Amino acid sequence: MTTAPSPQPALRTQGAPEPDLVSIRDLIYQVAGIFHPDNKLSLLQDRCRRRMTEVKAATLREYFECLTIRPIRQAELTALLNEITIGETCFFRNQAQLDAFRRVVIPKIIEAKADLPIRRLRIWSAGCSTGEEPYTLRMVLLEEAADRLKDWNIEIIATDLNERSLAHAKQAVYGSHSTRNLTPSYKERYFLPYGDQLQVCNRVRANINFVRLNLSDDSRMIFMKSLDAVFCCNVLIYFDLTSKSRVVQHFFANLLPHGYLFLGQSESLFGVNDDFQLVHLPGTTAYVKGNGTERRSTR
C-alpha cells in the first residue's frame, strides 16, 4: 500500500495532544489520507477508546503497538478505519445533481460515444458508504433504459474504505431515514418489503460491483480506468490538500475525455486541481475533463 507524506508534527507545547494519539493520527494519514487536525483529535480519541476496549489495550501507546507491530495490526487498522469513516446518506440526496446528470450529462456521454461499436456506460461511486448513492444512480439509469440507454451495457463500481458500510450496501435493506426522499412510484417499482424496512430489488442491484478501496492507494487507483462519470460526494472533506489533490488527479486520469466528476454541494476543486473545468448545470455544478469545447456553462 502506498502512503501519503506525513504532515508536520504538532508542536509539543502546554496543552498539546498526547504524543501517542498524534502517532495514531499520523498513521491514519499515511495509510488512508484522512487527517485529523488538533481541534478534531478528541473525536479520534473517542474512536480509539472503543477499539482499545475490544483489544484490551490499556494505553494509547499499547494501542499504537496493536496498529503497527503486533500480529493483529492489519485487522485492527481496518477496524479503526471502520470506526472513523462512518458516513450518513440517503437515497436521492441531491435531486438537482441527479436531474442534471439525467437530462444533460447522459445525453452528452451518449453523443461522445455515438461512433463506438460497444455501447457501455461506466460510473464510479467513490465513497459509496452504505450504498444509497449507487442504487440511486442505478434507478436513474433504469428510468432511461427504455429510451436513451436502450441496449446499453451499464456498470456501476461502488467503493468505500469501510467494510461495515459495504456489508450494509450488499444487503440492500434500508429504514425510513434512508428512504425518506423516495417517491411512492420509486418504492413500488424498485423496492420490496422487508419487515418494517425496504430492500432494493434485484434488477437495481444488478451490475453494481461493491469493492473495498482506499482512495489513497495509488497502486489500485490507477486501474479504475475508462470511466464516464465519477461521483465523489462529501468524501474529500476528510482529506487534507495534499491527499485531496492526489485523489482528484487519479479521477482526472481515469475518466474518459468526455468524463464528468460530481462532488458534494459544498465541495469545490478551487485550489486543488486546475485540470478539470467547472461546468454550471441547471441547479448544480460539476467538473468535466473536456477538451476545450466543454469549458463553458451548460444551461
Can you name the CATH architecture of the largest domain? 3-Layer(aba) Sandwich
Mean pLDDT: 90
Query: What spatial order of strands do you see in the largest sheet?
Result: 6-2-1-7-8-10-9
Number of strands: 10
Largest sheet: 7 strands, mixed
Roughly how many Å is the radius of gyration? 21 Å
Number of helices: 11
Task: Provide the CATH top-level class of the largest domain.
Answer: Alpha Beta
Q: Residue ranges: pLDDT <50 for 5 or more in a row? A: 1-14, 292-299
- Helices and strands: which structural class? alpha/beta
Determine the strand fraction and express it as a percent band: 15-25%
- CATH topology grouping of the largest domain: Rossmann fold
Molecular shape: globular
Number of domains: 2
Short summary:
The protein has 299 residues and is an alpha/beta fold. It has helices at 19-32, 41-55, 60-68, 73-84, 95-112, 132-143, 163-171, 184-190, 202-205, 218-221, 241-254; strands at 120-126, 153-160, 173-174, 191-194, 197-200, 208-212, 227-232, 255-263, 277-281, 284-288. β1 (120-126), α6 and β2 (153-160) form a beta-alpha-beta unit.
Quick tags:
alpha/beta, Rossmann fold, 10 strands, 11 helices, 299 residues, three-stranded antiparallel beta sheet
Give an overview in words.
With 299 residues, the protein is an alpha/beta fold. It has two domains: 66 residues, no CATH class; 194 residues, Vaccinia Virus protein VP39 (Rossmann fold, 3-Layer(aba) Sandwich), CATH 3.40.50. Helix content is 39%, strand content 18%. The chain has a seven-stranded mixed sheet. It has a three-stranded antiparallel sheet with strand order 3-5-4. Helix 11 links the parallel strand 7 and strand 8. The radius of gyration is 21 Å and the shape is globular.
